[in-house]
Amino acid sequence: MKKGLFALTIAVYAYILLQVIVFKFLSPFELLDPSFYGQTRDVSLVPFQEMWQSDVSSSIKRDNVYGNIILFVPAGLLLALYVPWKRAIGYALVMSVSFEVAQYVFGVGYTDIDDVMLNTLGGAIGVGLARILGSERTRTIVAYGGGTVAICLIVMEGLLIAVNG
Asked: Which backbone phi and psi does 43 adopt, to 5 degrees?
């Protein structure tokens, strides 16, 4: 059962990352619509430029920082189970860059170096937690904690689809 929950956790986490970062809660088919493609293609390679803009509210800045960090903590936990910690942090960086490139290619969201740095920090925090907990405890927490969250999200999404058609 633990292996099944672990696999479910990985699948749902990958789905969440794709939905939140790349698809922005759009269907993949909406991204293929020529009228949608590339409407929000922009890149910021200057660190913290967006965070220091005065026209963005402090709550949005805070949510962006914490959201980007928290979103990648599970990636760090998962990666730490399979590769040495330095490589796991490197893979978190590569994952984050890949998602930002996908945002640019699909023309969704805002491709920002801050996101890469914050996501990588979240991955590093996850790796650190995995090192502190040990691999067996981390695997158990990911399987049962993540599996519970995954099942709840699947049920909620199913209900939303049933209600909204």
From this structure: -130, 135
In the three-class reduction of DSSP (H, G, I as helix; E, B as strand; rest coil), residue 112 is classed as: strand
**Secondary structure letter of residue 23 according to DSSP:** I
Round to whole Å and give the CA distance between 90 and 137. 23
Extents of the domains making up the chain: 2-22+59-164
Distance of CA 88 to the CA centre of its chain: 15
Task: Please state whether the predicted TM-score (pTM) of the whole model is above 0.85.
Answer: no
What's the token pair of residue 28?
């993949």
Dump pLDDT digits (tens) for 128-162: 999 999 999 999 998 888 888 889 888 988 888 88
Q: What angle in degrees, to the nearest 10, is found between the helix axes of 58-80 and 113-133?
A: 50
Closest CA to 110 of 122, 100, 120: 100
Contact at 8 Å (CB) between 6 and 139?
A: yes
